[in-house]
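Side project, low priority. Logging it here so it doesn't get lost.
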Amino acid sequence: MWDWASIFLVAGSYFLGGIPLQYLLGRLKGVNLGHEYDKHISLFRKVGPAVGIIGIIGDIAKGTIPVLVANLLGWDTLIAALAGLAVLAGQMWPIYNKFDGEKGNTTGLGMALALAPRACAVMVTFIAVGAFIRTIPRLLSKKQSASEKLRFGGPPSNSLPIGMIIGFAMFPIATTSWFGIWFAHPLSTTLIGISMFILVMLRRATANVKKDFKSGGSRTKIVLNRLLLDRGFWDKSQTP
């Protein structure tokens, strides 16, 4: 099953995931996103929606490319899945930036899409519900103009990060026969889905956590806040 080519794919996937796409797109426009907590949102706000969308598509592509390459070469599902997991790890802990990267949500979606499209659809449904709970009331508001409704802003969203948790948790479940034979995938896909969920939650809990711990607050509350809401107490960034 394993040969030098498959090992190269998995190893190369890690380095692909670590490419700081959002940061590079910002620098091309003269904007430094190096210290931004959420580079996707910052790219939208400081550079513009067109470049922001390119950044999202690029990070999704990071997750899909290794899996699709393994599938096109006819390699075992486990190799494809491990390549996807490697690109996700590279996004979160890149060697290029002292192992301090991004959250990996968008790249994880790309990996899930290439690995198990139907299960990914289930995953995206829950994420979309979390996003719409926050967004629909704003879109229906008569106090804002159309341009204001479509602009990123407002207080941090609680429903979207919770929707993300549920979505990533549902992905491995949706790859099993519990959802019907149409959804069923090999056990390796389910195990990789569980691993992806663990990585996403681990990154949530640990990203810049030392900064929170210095506040002197309860470490248990700090970690729970990060796991549930995907941000530290110090983070004032706004989400859509």
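Brief comment: Residues 49-72 form the longest helix (24 residues).
Revisit when time allows.
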